Structures are given as structure tokens and as C-alpha cells.
């Protein structure tokens, strides 16, 4: 009787262990998160970058406060104003967007888009 109970217990333990191993390995399989923004996908100023400024920055950066980030003005303001230089990590616009005071004004994905757009040549595309 005791031996039967023991073997049942052993079988149960084996099942639990197998389930745990299966669980861990399936977790590993799916825990990879792809990068939020693929640096190799071409970013377009008009459709990827300007909307970031239009929805997050215009309450302050309209015509009065530099840089002027309004649609149709922002590219000139950023390039002529020296806010955009390569590599993107050192550009004034990226440093400002990631700095303590401005960081909450745009999402992490938006910051990466601006960074990659600069590193892709900062085109008015
Ligand atoms: C609530 C108002 C406000 C919002 C919204 C805002 N800014 Fe600013 N920004 C300021 C002020 C004020 C300054 C000037 C003081 C300073 O440098 O922090 C400034 C400065 C800057 C500068 C540096 C200007 C210079 O000549 O040194 C950049 C670049 C900039 N902002 C980019 C942005 C971007 C990009 C966004 C949107 C993601 C944004 N700002 C949103 C208020 C704002």
C-alpha cells in the first residue's frame, strides 16, 4: 500500500517537474521583445517625425519659442538652428528630448524615432 502511494507520488512529482520545465522553456521562447523602433527602417520626416512635434511640442514651441516646431517650419528651424547634428546622440534636439525637464514630453518610441531619423541623414523626406 505504502509502495503504491510512493510511486503515485513520484509520478506526480515527475509531472510537476516536467510541467515546470516546459513552462520555463516556453517563457524563454516568448520573452524576447523586439526593439520598439527598428533603426534600419527608413523614417520619414513628414509622416514619422513632424507628428511627434505637432502633438507634443506646439503648446510651447510655436512661433515664439525656439525651435519653431510647427509643420512647415520645423525642419528649417532645426537644421538652420543647429539642433540637428550627427551622430544623433550628440544633437541638441535629442539631448533636450531625453533631458530631465523635457523627457516626459515625448514617449521613448518618439525619442528613438528622432534619434534614428538623424542618424539616417536627417532628411526632409
Ligand atoms: C510646456 C512647454 C514646453 C513644451 C511642451 C516643450 N518645450 Fe521645449 N522648451 C521649453 C522651454 C521653456 C525651453 C527653454 C528653456 C530650456 O532650454 O529648457 C525649451 C527649450 C527647448 C529646446 C532647446 C532650445 C535652445 O535653443 O536651446 C529644444 C530643442 C526643445 N525645447 C525641444 C522640444 C521638443 C522636441 C518638444 C516636444 C517633444 C518640446 N520642446 C516641448 C518649453 C517646452
What can you tell me about this protein's structure?
The protein has about 120 residues and is mainly α. It has 2 domains: about 1-30; about 45-120, no CATH class. The protein has helices at about 1-30, 45-55, 75-80, 90-100, 110-120. The structure holds heme C. Heme C (HEC) binds near residues 65, 66, 67, 102 and 106.
**Beta strand count:** 0
Rg for CA atoms = 26 Å
- The helix-and-strand class reads mainly alpha
In round numbers, the mean pLDDT is 90
**Could you give the distance between the termini?**
79 Å
Helix residue percentage: 40-55%
Number of helices: 5
Instruction: State the order of secondary-structure elements, H for helix, E for strand.
Output: HHHHH
Instruction: State which percent range the strand residues make up.
Output: under 5%
Number of domains: 2
**Biggest β-sheet strands, sense, barrel:** none
The bound ligands are:
heme C
Uncertain runs: none
Give the overall shape.
rod-shaped
Can you give keywords for this protein?
125 residues; 0% strand; 2 domains; mainly alpha; 5 helices; binds heme C
Summarize the structure.
This protein has 125 residues and is an all-alpha fold. The protein is 54% helix and 0% strand.
Amino acid at each position: 500500500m505504502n509502495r503504491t502511494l510512493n510511486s503515485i507520488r513520484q509520478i506526480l512529482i515527475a509531472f510537476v517537474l516536467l510541467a515546470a520545465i516546459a513552462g520555463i522553456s516556453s517563457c524563454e521562447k516568448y520573452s524576447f521583445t523586439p526593439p520598439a523602433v527598428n533603426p534600419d527602417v527608413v523614417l520619414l520626416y513628414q509622416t514619422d517625425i513632424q507628428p511627434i512635434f505637432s502633438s507634443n511640442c506646439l503648446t510651447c514651441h510655436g512661433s515664439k519659442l525656439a525651435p519653431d516646431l510647427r509643420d512647415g517650419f520645423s525642419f528649417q528651424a532645426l537644421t538652420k538652428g543647429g539642433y540637428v547634428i550627427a551622430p544623433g546622440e550628440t544633437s541638441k534636439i535629442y539631448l533636450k528630448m531625453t533631458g530631465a525637464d523635457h523627457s516626459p514630453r515625448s514617449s521613448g518610441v518618439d525619442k528613438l524615432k528622432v534619434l534614428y531619423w538623424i542618424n539616417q541623414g536627417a532628411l526632409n523626406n
